[in-house]
């Protein structure tokens, strides 16, 4: 969550970047490129005073990243709801 007005100018742990990192690690040959799944951790946010650890895994088939996952604990900092007008088109 980004909320500069509430003292959160940036996200201390970016799951989407952690997932992309898995694909990059495979392409760079920094994790095994044989078929299987490799685990890695991303630690960030310490400089913001909100340290985070993301546990990640990337799955490789035929030398290419085909799946990635990320888990970790979060601290809820906000909530929200979205209401669509009744006339809004719904993508299917």
Beta percentage is 25-35%
Described by the principal axes of the CA atoms, the overall outline is flat
Calculate the mean pLDDT score and round it. Answer: 84
Number of helices: 1
Q: Helix fraction?
A: 10-25%
Rg result: 17 Å
The secondary structure category is alpha+beta
CATH class: Alpha Beta
The strand order across the widest sheet is: 1-2-3
Number of domains: 1
Fourth CATH level, the homologous superfamily: Diaminopimelate Epimerase, Chain A, domain 1
Q: What CATH architecture do you see? A: Roll
User: Largest sheet at a glance?
Assistant: 3 strands, antiparallel
User: Which stretches are poorly predicted, pLDDT < 50 over at least 5 residues?
Assistant: none
CATH topology grouping: Diaminopimelate Epimerase, Chain A, domain 1
- How many strands appear in the DSSP assignment? 3
> CA-to-CA gap between the ends?
27 Å
Element-by-element helix/strand order: HEEE
Describe this protein with a few key phrases:
single chain, 92 residues, alpha+beta, 3 strands
What is the fold's blueprint, element by element?
Elements lengths: L14 H13 L8 E9 L7 E10 L2 E8 L21
Antiparallel strand pairs: 1-2, 2-3
Model description:
With 92 residues, the chain is α+β, with helices and mostly antiparallel strands. The chain has one domain (4-71): Diaminopimelate Epimerase, Chain A, domain 1 (Roll). Helix content is 14%, strand content 29%. The chain is built from 1 helix and 3 strands; from the N terminus they run αβββ. It has a 3-stranded antiparallel beta sheet, with helices on one face. The relative contact order is 0.22.
């Amino acid at each position: 969550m980004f909320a500069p007005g509430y003292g959160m100018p940036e996200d201390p742990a970016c799951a989407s970047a952690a997932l992309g990192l898995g694909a990059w690690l495979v392409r760079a040959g920094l994790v095994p490129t044989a078929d299987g799944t490799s685990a890695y951790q991303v630690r960030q946010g310490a400089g913001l005073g909100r340290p985070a650890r993301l546990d990640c895994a990337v799955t490789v088939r035929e030398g290419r990243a085909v799946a990635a996952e990320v888990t970790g604990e979060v601290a809820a900092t906000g909530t929200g709801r979205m209401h669509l007008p009744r006339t809004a088109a719904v993508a299917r």
